[in-house]
Structure formats: C-alpha cells, structure tokens
Design brief:
There is one protein chain. The protein is α+β, with helices and mostly antiparallel strands. It contains 13 helices and 36 strands. Strands 1, 11, 12, 17, 18, 19, 20, 21, 22, 23, 24 and 25 form a 12-stranded mixed sheet that branches. A hairpin with a 4-residue loop joins strand 27 and strand 28.
C-alpha cells in the first residue's frame, strides 16, 4: 500500500480458477497465521514476509492465498494479487495464482499486507479476526506454506490509523448510509521503508503466530471454511488525472498532471489543488513524494462538487462549488521516494489535495490513478443515429464496469455492497455487454447463502449486519428466471428449487384477509419515491401490508417460478404457482382497481396512484394483452400519478419488449437525457435534485434496453436455444447492435425503409435459429447472414 521503490508496476496475476475450476485443494498442510502483537479483532495493518531462495527462475509456481479482512500480495516488491473475493465464513474465498513471472533465481520474498479495518470496517466483510494463509499447489511450492515453523515473519504497521467517516450527521459525506471502510491516516516516520523487497532486514520481526488448521466449505471447522474464488482477479491500469481545475497558493508546472515535471510546495506555505479525473472512477490513486518533513497532506475524494445547498447540477460547472467527501491524511517524515496508495478503494471524479508545509519544501513527483476493476470486456455493439442515446449507453456501461470488482457493487462510493435488487439489473447488464454469466451465478449463489429460517434472504450479501427487504427475495427468483432464459444451465437452477419454495412460502403465509400481502419483515423496497411526503424506498402505506405493487410483484414472481419449475420438469408445482398468481391478481383487482380512472391505486383506500403499481400489474399480466398495452400507454401518459426512478424502469423495458411496444421507449428516457445535459459520466442512484450516489449500476438498464428493445434481440425460449428479433426503432432511422450469445454474436444492422418498412441484415451464430418480427410480419431466421426487407 506504501512502497519505497519507484517504478514497480506490473499486471496483477490472473485467477487460475476462473473461468474453470482447475485447482481444488482437498488437503491443507498450511495453517492460518496472525501477528503476535495485535488484538486480532481490532483495527490493524499487518505486514507478513517470507524470504526463500530458488536455484533457478521457475516456469510455474502456483500458490493459494487468503486473508481476513483483506490482503495485497507482493512478490519481490511487485503487487501481484488483491483479495480475497468477499463471501461469508462458511464460503471464505481463496485466490489461486501463478507467481512464477515475478520470481527469480536466488533470493526471493513474498510479502502480504493484511488489513483489518476494525469495528468500522466495510459492511460487506464478515470478519472473524486478522489472519493470513498461503499454500503451494504442490510439494515444489510448499516452501511458502504458512506454518508454525517460524519461516513467515509478521509485524504490525504502526504508521496507520483509521479516519472514521462521520456519516450519521452528514459531516464527511452528503448524507445517507456510508457502509464501506474508513479513510487512512499515515505517519510516514513509522512506516518501514521498502519492506516488500528482498533487501529489507526483518530479523527483528517476530514469527507469525499459528491460529488454527484450514478447512474446506464442505467440512466442519473452527473458523473460515474455504472455497475457491469464482470471479476473475481485478485488473489495474495506470491513468493520469485529466486536469487541474482549481488551485490556490502555488503555480502548477505545465507537465505536472502528465507526470513530466514535479510540483514543489515551498516551506512554510499552504496550497490547495483540485484535480478533475474527467469521469467517475474507482481504484487506488498513488501519490509520489519526497521531503516535506512535518507537512500535512489531506486528500479528499468526491464523485462531484456541491453547491452551498448540497445540490450538484452540471458536473462541468466548478465555480462556487465545494468539496465534500472522505479523506486520507499523509504526514511525511522528509524521506526521499515515498509512495502513498490508500488501503481500500477510492471512488472519485474530483480529488482535492490540501498541503501545509513546515520547515522544508515538499516535492510531489507525480499523482496518478491505478484504475481498478474486473477485466470485463464489452463484446456487445450498439450504434444508432441519436448521439444522446449513444452517450446514455456509454455512461450506463461505465457505471456497471467500474462497479464490477470481486463481486458486484451497488455503487462506487457509499456502500459498495452486493444488493439483490441492484444485482438483478447489474448482472444482466454484464451479461448483455460481455456474454459472461459469472456475475449472475455468483450473485445468485451468494444471496442464497444468506437465507434465513423464514425463507427470506438478506437484502445484500456478504453482510455483517441483517438488512431485510422481502421484495428482494422475489428479485432473487427473478434473477433465476433471467438466468434460465439467457443461459443453458438447467443443473445450476435445479440447486435452488427448495430455496424458491421457501421464499414463496413466506409470502403465501403472510396474506391478509383481503388476499393482499401483509406486513413485512424489515420493509418492502420497490423504488425511490420522490413525491412529498414519500421520500423512502417503500410504497406508501406498505408498512402494514395492503400494498398493490407488492402483491402484484408476488403474483409476477409466482409466474416466473412457474416457468422455472416447468423448465425443471416439475409441472404440478408450476400449476400451483400459476393458480396462486391468478388468485392474487383477482384479489388486487377487487381491492385496488379504480374503474373510473382506469388505473390501480396503490392501496385499498385509493388515495395514492402510482405508475409503478400499474406497470407491475402489466408484469403480472393481470389483463389480456390488449388491455395491458392500453394500461401501459395510459400510465406513461398520465402526468398526475407518481413517476418511477431509474431502478424501477427496468420493468418498463421488459414489458415494452414483451408487448411489442418498444416504440414508446423514448417516453421514459428523459431522466437519462437529463444526465447527459448535466455532463454526468455515470448513472446516479435516484432522480431528484439532491443526489447521494452518482455511480449506481441499477440505473443502467438502458444498456440492456438498447439491445433488447430497440434492436429487439431477446431469447425466444429458455436456455436461449432460439432468438426472437423484433426491432423498435421508434424515432431512430438506423440501428446496429449485437448480443454476445454463448454460441457466438447475434448481429443486427437495420434501417427504416420508406414510411413503414425496414431493411438490413441479421447474422446468427452457428447452431442458432429464430424469428424476425416486424409490423405483424414474421420471417424465419437461420444461422449465418440473412437480408431483411419488409
């Protein structure tokens, strides 16, 4: 995290158990170890070292490695891996990497910096105590095993102290829950210089202390039960800051931002510099320093700047705005060549560096960003003649990409948790953009780990607390349904049959006398509501049940469950689920349908009318298709009812595609167009003037819709064994798109022809067939390229 050597830069080593499991450990000769001089549950940054010699540079040297809370692994001073992937105690992840590229003949050292952020740690870390383990894959690599023989050394790094984020009173952030790790305070005089290198003298360090044996996830054990990592190792890219947009107290050399010339802050002076990276990003910015003994450097990070009333507006407008955000503090000791990087991710578009020097000048040699995210490579194509749509697609994908780390993150800055509802959208974006289903499988699996005795899952996972939104238990079944439709993996879905049953049983046992769903455990999250006095995420009045949208959500999920059970050859239960859905729909009609307005009210008292409720009635297919289309148009055009935020509109896109109403898509796009007008580079959490998170993947559903609704590419049956292409160009004249199917890319290039026609080409991969639909015309499709003219 702090290195005393310049120019050590290399790629993080790839995870060898992704995409296929190649190295499963059946026996663990290695042991869990810790540092002898710490209280193991408290805040501590611990350094572990293992020196050893090799007769020659090996061709392969595979190791398994993990820690609690978190580690950064260095091989001969080179950062080689970051982990572990987050999970719970019974499924604790370990990474498997080949460190041979960074080994050498002669002296070698493996060093691990293990962070335990203590009681204020990230909510997504389910920690037991500070610990570390490493095991070689074969006897050849066993020299690096963590054992009780004293070969591994350990020492607490006294340089670090946490900077607790005061979020409850909105002091350090703009407001709302801050669920991730504290900031860093670094007293450089206490930091061991160059400790990750082979030349460092660790003779005064104590032996790493043995904790206990290591057990696998299918065994009994005292502490962590181990499971191989399931997602790829993150990748890092060194990137310069875009520009400096404000400075005080000094002049900035022209080449500083590019790393071409140093910045010198004179002794006994104060300076402030505001960096604009250009887009919201996530990773580990690095600051390279010399001199400046007894100086104070404060780094503050924010996704955007704030007006005095804490609104944001156009991100490109700097004048009159202030920085509000979490901070790191560095206290230099005057040494040369010192590198600072934070212990945990920093999300930002803007960074403010405030410097106060003492008796000697401070030299800032360089400040750059190690952008960090999973190596998600976009295969999907979307092109059209509307530049605003293209910009929306760009910011949706950027948000999803930067928030794809070891697991999916709900947001880049504030919580960084893997929430169920967020992942329902996020995992599907990743699937549509990359063709990789691991993010959906990982989320489904980990959420099921959280299942409680009543059948509900927690709202996010891994999670050191207990957050419950029963509607997210429904969203989990919807994720399984999406997986069934897009992926050919019946065995994976079959594992969750009993879990589906238990989720639906909670709802079935929680019905009111009028048939609607009753009182929740926790609360029913549907979407952010912005109309006074409703500013929460739960439907008005739903605290005691009687919510039409929640009841209709249950009915819609029953239909998805029925489809899943039919796919698994369980037709009897599928029929039961369909009958329950029909009963629920009838009860909602009886309690909440307003015949005069032609809309559903949200509650039986018929005081609140909401577009979300009526869209969910369409999802649940309460009426026949003609009436569903009419209801869709009616609620989209009615300006007197409550309107949804970004998250919920994912449902609109699905139903527009199912009902062949994609031409109406532009009616819901204005809230995304507004983001482009404000020069936003990512999609925010909610609509409204006072934002919190500016990088929330659940708001990225247009990236899916442009391919699924506008280009019209969607699965025609479970397992994506056939494709249905039904374009809805609407106001567009031209569209070119592709979907990364597991057999190969599905490609569409179409343009309007005349007043009501369409022409172009479609290409299907080998082994896939389908249909093309346009204006009630149907054309059969087969593998290869086909011309379309209708």
């Amino acid at each position: 995290m702090l290195l005393g050597v310049w120019n050590i830069s290399a790629q993080l080593l790839p995870e060898l158990n992704y995409p296929l499991l190649q190295y499963r450990v059946n026996r663990w000769p290695a042991k869990w170890v810790t540092c002898a001089d710490i209280a193991e549950a408290d805040y501590a940054m611990v350094m572990f070292r293992r020196s050893f010699s090799l007769p020659a540079k090996p061709e392969q040297f595979v190791v398994h490695v993990s820690a609690d809370n978190r580690y950064k692994l260095y091989v001969n001073g080179i950062l080689s891996a970051i982990g572990p992937q987050g999970s719970d105690w019974r499924h604790w992840r370990y990474e498997t990497i080949d460190i041979a590229p960074y080994l050498q003949a002669g002296d070698n050292v493996i060093a691990a910096e293990v962070a335990n952020w203590g009681p204020d740690r990230y909510f997504g870390i389910m920690s037991i105590r500070t610990a570390f383990m490493m095991q070689g894959a074969t006897q050849t690599e066993a020299v690096v095993n963590t054992t009780a023989d004293g070969a591994w050394k350990a020492k607490k790094n006294e340089a670090y102290k946490p900077i607790t984020v005061n979020w409850i009173y909105a002091v350090d952030i703009v407001g709302g829950l801050y669920a991730t790790n504290p900031g860093d305070s670094i007293t450089v005089a206490q930091y061991p210089h160059n400790w990750t290198s082979t030349t460092f003298d660790d003779s005064a360090w104590k032996q790493a202390r043995w904790i206990w044996n290591i057990s696998n996830e299918d065994e009994s054990g005292f502490f962590w039960l181990m499971k191989p990592r399931t997602t790829p190792q993150v990748a890092q890219t060194r990137q310069p800051f875009g520009k400096i947009v404000r400075s005080e107290g000094l002049s900035i050399p022209a080449g500083f931002v590019k790393g071409e010339s140093p910045l010198v802050i004179p002794a006994q002076s104060k300076a402030s510099i505001l960096f604009d990276y250009g887009t919201v990003t996530l990773g580990f910015p690095e600051l390279l320093l010399s001199g400046g003994k007894n100086s104070i450097i404060t780094l503050r990070y924010a996704e955007n700047l704030y007006n005095p009333d804490r609104t944001r507006g156009d991100r490109n407008v700097i004048e009159g705005k202030q920085m509000i955000g979490i901070r790191d503090v560095i206290l230099p000791d005057g040494r040369e060549q010192f590198r600072f990087s934070p212990t945990w991710y920093r999300a930002f578009c803007f960074v403010q560096m405030d410097i106060e020097t003492a008796a000697e000048p401070l030299v800032v040699h360089d400040y750059y960003h190690m952008a960090t995210m999973s190596p998600v490579n976009r295969r999907a194509v979307f092109e059209c003649n509307d530049p605003v749509y293209l910009k929306i697609d760009e910011i949706c994908w950027r948000t999803a990409a930067i928030c794809t780390q070891d697991n999916l993150m709900s947001d880049a800055y504030y919580e960084q948790m893997m929430y169920v509802g967020d992942s329902w959208v996020h995992a599907l974006i990743n699937l549509y953009m990359t063709g990789d289903d691991i993010w959906m499988r990982n989320a489904i699996e980990q959420f099921d780990y959280s299942r409680m005795p009543d059948g509900n899952i927690t709202s996010c996972y891994p999670l050191k607390s207990t957050f419950v939104h029963p509607t997210y238990s429904l969203a989990w079944i919807d994720m399984l349904y999406d997986y069934m439709m897009h992926c050919d993996d019946r065995d994976f879905i079959r594992k969750y049959v009993q879990s589906i049953r238990s989720t639906l049983a909670w709802f079935d046992n929680n019905l009111l006398d009028n048939g609607l769903v009753g009182k929740p455990v926790g609360s029913y999250f549907i979407d952010w509501y912005n109309e006074p006095p409703y500013y929460s995420g739960e439907p008005p009045g739903s605290q005691n049940g009687n919510s039409a949208v929640v009841s209709l959500y249950y009915a819609a999920t029953l239909l998805h469950a029925a489809a899943l059970f039919e796919y698994l050859d369980l037709p009897g239960e599928a029929t039961v689920f369909r009958n329950k859905a029909e009963k629920m729909k009838a009860d909602v009609i009886a309690a909440c349908w307003d015949d005069e307005r032609g809309l559903f009210a949200e509650n039986p008292d018929k005081k609140f009318y909401d577009e979300r409720t009526n869209i969910m009635a369409i999802v649940a297919q309460v009426f026949d298709e003609a009436k569903q289309k009419a209801l869709l148009t009616r609620c989209l055009d009615d300006t007197t009812i409550s309107k949804p935020s970004y998250y919920f509109i994912a449902n609109h896109f699905n139903e527009m595609r199912r009902l062949s109403e994609g031409a109406q898509i532009d009616k819901v796009m204005n809230i995304w167009k507004d983001l482009i007008a404000m020069n936003m580079t990512t999609t925010p959490e909610r609509t409204g003037g006072r934002q919190r998170s500016e990088a929330h993947p659940w708001s990225g559903a247009p990236a899916i819709a442009f391919i699924k609704v506008v280009a019209g590419i969607a699965p025609a049956c479970p397992g994506y064994k056939s494709v249905s292409i039904e374009p809805a160009l609407g106001k567009l004249n031209y569209v070119k798109a592709s979907y990364p199917h597991y057999l190969g890319d599905i490609k569409v290039e179409l343009k309007k022809a005349g007043n009501n026609g369409i022409e172009g080409s479609i290409e299907l991969p080998k082994g896939l067939n389908g249909v093309f639909r346009f204006n009630d015309q149907i054309v059969g499709l087969k593998e290869g390229v086909q011309k379309i003219k209708l």
